[in-house]
Amino acid sequence: MKEDSKKSPAVEDGSYLNKVVWNVSDVMKYMGVTKDYVYRLTSNKLIPHYKPMGKKVFFKRTEIEEWLLTNKVNTSDDVESEVEALLYEKLYGQKRRAAV
Predict the structure, then answer these.
(1) Exposed, middle or buried, 67 (CB in 10 Å: 0-12/13-18/19+)?
(2) Domain range list for the chain
(3) CB-CB neighbours of 81 under 10 Å
(4) Inter-residue contact 10 to 19 (CB < 8 Å)
């Protein structure tokens, strides 16, 4: 059987990835969401954006990339290490030295 080699529109037209300033359409492609969702994020002031003329919405690509990486969810190992460090500090009154 031959595999379907079609790519998503966002992958086929990656020209927006080289732009510094994005419009709503670029953000939609990058995030894989609808226009309504992007506008909802802007109206609720949840996503960094600019309105230089009061109506059209623009986004700085680097700010969107940074925004998407906020609110990191720690792995179980991260949480376990943090708990161990806090317990060590509580028990011994000093911070644990990093392993070399």
Answers:
(1) middle
(2) 9-71
(3) 13
(4) no
Reported as a single tens digit per residue, the pLDDT across 1-32 is 444 445 444 445 678 888 999 999 999 999 99
Q: Specify the pLDDT at position 57.
A: 97
Owner of token pair 């998407």? 68
Fold of 9-71: Arc Repressor Mutant, subunit A (1.10.10)
77-100 confidence digits (pLDDT tens): 989 998 998 998 888 888 777 665
What's the confidence (pLDDT) of residue 91?
87
Q: What is the 3-state secondary structure (H, E, C) of the chain?
A: CCCCCCCCHHHHCHHHHHCCEECHHHHHHHHCCCHHHHHHHHHCCCCCCECCCCCCCEEEHHHHHHHHCCCCCCCHHHHHHHHHHHHHHHHHCCCCCCCC
Is 85:78 a contact under the CB 8 Å cutoff? Answer: no
